[in-house]
What does this fold into?
Amino acid sequence: MKPLFVLLISVAWTFTGAQHYYQGLMDYLENRLLAIEDRMQLWHDLSQRYHTEMKDFKKLTAEAMGGLRNDHSTLFKDLEGAGVRVDRVEREMDYVEAQTSPRACALKAEKVVEQEAWGLQEGRVEEEDEEEWEELLSRVSDCVEIISGIRSVKILKRVGSPKGMWTRDPRSSKVYVFNGTSGDTIYQFDSVRDFSRSLGITSSRNIRLPSDWSGPGSAVYNGFLYYIQQDSDMDVQVVRYDLLTGSVTDTAMFPVESHASVYNLNPETVADLAADDEGLWLLYAPSDSEPNISLAKMDAATLDIEQIWDTRCPRENAEAAFVVCGTVYVVYNTRLASRSRVQCVFDVNDMVISEEAPLLYFPRRYGAHTSLKYNPEEKQLYGWDDGYQIIYRLTMKRKLLA
Ligand SMILES: *[C@@H]1O[C@H](CO)[C@@H](O)[C@H](O)[C@H]1NC(C)=O
Ligand SMILES: *[C@@H]1O[C@H](CO)[C@@H](O)[C@H](O)[C@H]1NC(C)=O
It folds into this structure.
């Protein structure tokens, strides 16, 4: 502003000091200067305001950005965590599927056979291999399911005598009915439906066997019938009968005293067979003085005995039993029939501990079971209860792996 002032003064002097003119000009200029100053103040205020507003805005955006960044990183972490969890669940599912598939046992058994063949062929069974082979053998019946409950019951029909047995071949849909406690005839139906629709039990294919079956303890698996044959005062025999060709393919003696029977409440059950992917199981009493039920594992094709266990389950008050994945479930009742219940469990791999196996009550029903036959494909029991043919559907859970 100074140079402007000096210029104005010199200009005033040049114009011969016209005092009034100078004064007027000075006033005019002062007013202009004041106006300019006012406007400058205004601008200053405005810019100040803009500046603070800008600062506030910047602060706000910075905060918002910070918040967004945090949110993003937590979101990212969450996503990562979820991804890891999904992976884990997927792996667990794979494992559960591999372990619980009904074929798991068969696959292991096949592996064992393969290894045996390889070992013999190559002649290279070393000590280490032998140990593995032993371990593998002991795990052949290592299914991982136990029964957790009885989901439902279906009373299908009432045919035949109060005592008897019925079962379904897990590998076909065919149903076999054993009326009474012995005989040389069995009745075949194409399906459970076929059986439930039929009038009585004779309106189907009747199969005459070359010898009598003794007791409701037979088993049918993959087109073969396994039954107990016991002629008076003779040893017990297990017979393997081909249902397709109608011929006996094998028999095996069993060291059982003639008048011992496996379940105290069902004296007609000489011995009880169960067949599945793992082989053939036989529940029996070696002699009448033996208080506990014995279990034998047999080769389903050759009827060789592979191993024998004392189940430590008493025969007293037992009415039936069945085998699921290498675990025996013994069903007890009272002489005056009340509720049947699984009260003793025996696992050949010692993997099911008694605390883990629930006390399993059967739904309140008429009398007492003569037989209970487990079907591994359907996970259900075929029961014969006072002449009623009943299906129990089971719920399963995984064994706790120690
Ligand atoms: C079933 O067996 C009982 C006795 O065991 C017999 O009286 C009855 O006639 C049999 N029923 C049929 C349809 O064979
Ligand atoms: C039968 O089993 C019980 C356990 O339930 C056991 O204490 C007893 O020693 C067993 N008896 C024989 C003869 O094995």
Remarks:
- DSSP finds five helices and 20 strands in the chain.
- The two ends are 97 Å apart (CA to CA).
- The longest strand covers residues 145-158.
- Residues 160-161, 179-180, 200-202 surround 2-acetamido-2-deoxy-beta-D-glucopyranose (ligand 1) (CB under 6 Å).
